[in-house]
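Q: Convert this sequence to structure tokens.
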Amino acid sequence: MHPQPEPDAKHETHSGHDAHPKHEILRVMRPMYARQWLLGAAPRHAVPDEEMPPSTAYHLIHDELIMDGSSRFNLATFCGTWMEPEAQKLMYETFDKNMIDKDEYPQTAELEMRCVHMLAQLWNAPEPESTMGTSTIGSSEACMLGGLALKWRWRERRRQAGLSTDRPNIVMGANTQVCWHKFVRYWDVEERTVPLEGDQVITDPERAAAMCDENTIGVVAVLGSTFTGDYEDVAALSATLDRLQEKTGLDIPIHVDGASGAFVAPFLQPEVVWDFRLPRVKSINTSGHKYGLVFPGVGWVIWREASDLHPDLVFNVDYLGGTMPTLAINFSRPASQVVAQYYNLIRLGKSGYRAIHKACQTVAVHLARQIESIGPFELVSQGTDLPVFAWKLKEQSHWSLYDLADRLRDRGWQVPAYRMPANRQDLIVQRVVVRNGFTCDLADMLVKDIRRHLDWFAAQPGFRSTADGARFHH
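A:
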């Protein structure tokens, strides 16, 4: 170890005190990787006793994070991985603002409500300027709030009728995102899951309606399945529930989980009726950090009318400087993502969102056709709803899609393989999510790498793979 020089008058810190001996080493020893803090392991399980210079802490963490995959090559995530420099600057300028403190940051709160009203207008709410809604930390929180509003509204109707409120249930497809399974467990609601049957990859409206009864708080429709990118037919579900009401008197509301599709369909498929144009749709959620093109994490939930949101779900707090309503499960969170969402909405406008999503869809369809042309693959979805598609193996082989996903990581590609939900767990698919910034050139590179790995599998006849993706050689 290098000797530590004695402090003297010329080595004083900016505060006027003698510099720490370790900082003296830093003054003499300028090269980054000669610093003693980098000669051992990074602190892992306990806070270190001594401080280190900020640049050293930065490089220590920065170098570890090099081991992460490239977000641009991550074709598994739906989350945004690119924003314009101006948006990033706005986010940097607002990292310190707490979104919940609307008294201290009234203009930030104003931007949040502008976003709510813009989305309400985009989704054809009857009175978008007065629509109830809020930003959230992501779609999971938005779904929780949407589900709670359904439960509270159902419970209030039952109480007014003098009926039991003991056993609420919610109907959803097996292809719903995990946040809905969290909802039923966390909030004590019975889950009624509509399994996939035959060649289906989305929920059948007739079988969903058949699961409803007087205790059903609502039906969840997914606009953009996580598994395949397909839209569920919300209009058909609404019509089926209309017929159910005519026969039984049951008035079952719909919540649309538009985590991805609610920011895509208005621009790419405006003719598809899925939103508040259907009176039975009472609430919609979306992820601003998916096809809303914001960095994680921000979500949105909006109700059709004020009466669809029970007042008991809104709290008033007065300990942040003024009395203000709050509708959220989470409390403190940064305002930067909300500001970035407003930036995107006014910067891009409808034409900008349409152009970006159309480009993503063009790449998705191009890549899907390329992969379909490769011998062993068959498309499960086409990329014509969301810019997302999935494929399967045409027949059993000595390798699996899990193996291909593993091999593709050799150049940084993250292309997930997984089982479809009940009752189609025998079907294993691989999926690509095309996001802003993924080009046809990158798509062609992916196809080239897939072909390279197929050649490798063909040259390894002794390679064997189990169904769950475990790999070994004979």
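The first strand starts at residue 133 and ends at 136.
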